[in-house]
Structures are given as C-alpha cells and as structure tokens.
Amino acid sequence: MTDQLSAATIEDRLREGFGQPLRFYSSIGSTNEEGLGWAAEGAPEGALLVTDHQTAGRGRWGRGWASQPGRSLQFSLVLRPLLAPDDYGLITTALGVACAVAIDDISAVATRIKWPNDVTVKGRKMAGILVESRMSGSAIDAAVAGIGINVGWRREELPEEVADSATSLYIESGRDIDRVDLLEAVVRGFERRYLSLQEPAGRESLIAEATQRSWVLGRRVRIRFAEGETIEGWAAGLLANGALELDVDGTMRAISVGEIEQLRPA
Length: 266
Ligand code: BTN
Description:
Elements: H1 7-13, E1 22-25, H2 31-40, E2 48-51, E3 72-79, H3 89-107, E4 112-114, E5 118-121, E6 124-136, E7 139-150, H4 169-173, H5 179-196, H6 200-213, E8 220-224, E9 230-238, E10 244-248, E11 251-255, E12 259-264
Parallel strand pairs: 1-2
Antiparallel strand pairs: 2-3, 3-7, 4-5, 5-6, 6-7, 8-9, 8-12, 9-10, 10-11
The protein binds biotin (BTN).
C-alpha cells in the first residue's frame, strides 16, 4: 500500500465536524470495543477511532472481522443519536450509503447494498458495518458505528473462509486506493446523511438512495434471525426506518434485524 494512514494525515483532512477528536492506532483489538469505552468516558458525537490493523475485529452475529496491516480501512464513530430506538437501523443505512457512494466516486466501482449492512460488488462483500449501543439504564446513551472496508487485499490474501464471498477495491478496480481519501469521503458522506435524519426530508432522501442501490429489492430471499428461525419472501421495499418490507405469501412483514441467507434471481 502506498498511502500514509496516520494521525497526521487524517487530522489534516478531518479538521472539524465528524472526525474530531481522533484516536489513531497502528494496531488495536477492535475500534468498536475501544469506542464503547471512550463513549463511557464521555467522548462526544463524531469522535473517530481509526486503525491500520485489528487483532480482535468484531463482525455481526458474534463473528470476527479479518484484518491485515496496510490492506483495510477500519474505523468507528461515536454517536449520541437523537433517534427513537426503532429508528436506529437508519444509522447502518446511512453508513452503508455513504460507503457505497464514496467507493463509486473514488474508484468508479459499482457497489450495491445488501440489506442491512453489507456493501457488495457483483454479489461479493467489500465492506461490513457493525453498530453497537451503550445503554444507560434503559436508555441508549451512545452508539458506536464501525465499518471495515476491504481496500488493498489481493485475491490470494483473502482469508480462506471468505475467499469465495469477499472482494476488495484493489481486486475490482485493479489499483490501490488511498485510504485517507476514502476515509474522508465516507466520514463526510455519513456525517451529512446522519445529521439530516433529524428532518423528514433527510430520511426520505436516505431511503431513496438506499433503495436505488439495493441489491436485495425484487429478489426472493430467506432471512435468518438470531434464534435460528428463518422466513422466506420477496424483498418488496425499505420502510421509513430502514427495515426491510418482506412480502410473505401476500402478507407484508417488517424485518428490522436479520441476515439474508440465500438469494435466488428475481
Ligand atoms: C460485519 O459485516 O459482520 C460487520 C463488520 C464490521 C467490522 C468493523 S471494522 C471497524 C469496527 N471495529 C470492529 O471491531 N468491527 C467494526
């Protein structure tokens, strides 16, 4: 990798707004884990944690997130959302759209969003998002929105377990993309969309963007819930809070959390 991901290069680009204050680590367990701790100590909204390498990166459903120095963009933002708990899915939606748009703009690689939290290219995963919350009693005190983007991975470097399902910006574009450029674009794109969630027009516009980029809508899907139960139906649309509207034999169901297990062509 030829880029210079460091505290100084990031500070230079993200001088105000989201991205301040910044903590940069050449290596850390998990930026989400560290972000939750920082939030407990009072980190303000927009505080950013970036690392070149994670040794215990966290994925959804208790899975890990693989990392290799120099090859990934991995960061987390501390948020203090003024959102109803039912609307928290919009944070994932906003980060997914910001990531997809930034990748398209910087590399001209055409991305799609696989609801709820993957950014994909030709069906292969390029980025994943994990939003975790910190409770204070029964209220949500802070959220930490983390994203990992496979930037410079060569095909032969992909971990064996994801070799058939993952891809990287290098693999798709044939060139190394500067991670500082990408970080700046994703953070700024997310900040704008996230702050606009306070207005109905901002939410509508986000759902419209997510709909336009969705890889899921119009497909027959099977969704697996945390308890192992599954449900099948047609992905009909995205609801105002980012939930998936699933047509199950003519009955519409709103799905807020789940994992798409299987997709067949529409
Ligand atoms: C997934 O697709 O399962 C979500 C992956 C999220 C990975 C990112 S990398 C930065 C942040 N820190 C973590 O430990 N996880 C998220």
